[in-house]
Amino acid sequence: MSRDTAIARIRCQPRSAMQSGKARTGWQLVFSPAEARRTDPLTGWWGSGDTRAQLRLSFSTREAAEAYARANNIPYEVEAEPRHAAIKPKSYAENFRYGRAENWTH
């Protein structure tokens, strides 16, 4: 696969490990590797001459990422947006509610 035919992926930006909400989750355009990684004989580190694999472009919407890819003639695939479980709001007062069926665990 040559460098010009590398397919880019448009995906929903993952949340950081310290993030519980949905803020700062936009869309990313990530290039797939165009050449295999190999070990450097001198240092033993893995690497390749493909610098596009290191590039991640961020966009606020999926449509903006698709428009950028079309404008620059970049073939792309769109990954489905991950489904998040609905979070039931809780309050600290629930721990002390009268008639609570389950035991207070902490």
Report what the structure shows.
The strands form 2 sheets. This protein has a 4-stranded mixed sheet. The protein has a two-stranded antiparallel ribbon with strand order 3-4. The protein is built from 1 helix and 6 strands, in the order βββββαβ. It has one helix at 62-71, and strands spanning 8-12, 27-31, 38-39, 46-47, 56-59, 76-78. The model has no long low-confidence stretch (mean pLDDT 81). It has one domain (3-96): Double Stranded RNA Binding Domain (2-Layer Sandwich). The radius of gyration is 22 Å and the shape is elongated. By secondary structure, the chain is mainly beta. Keywords: Electron transport, Membrane, Respiratory chain, Transit peptide, Transport. Its main location: membrane. It is found in: Membrane. It holds the Pfam family NDUS4.
Short description:
With 106 residues, the chain is mainly beta. Helix content is 9%, strand content 20%. The longest helix is centred in the middle third of the chain and has 10 residues, at 62-71.
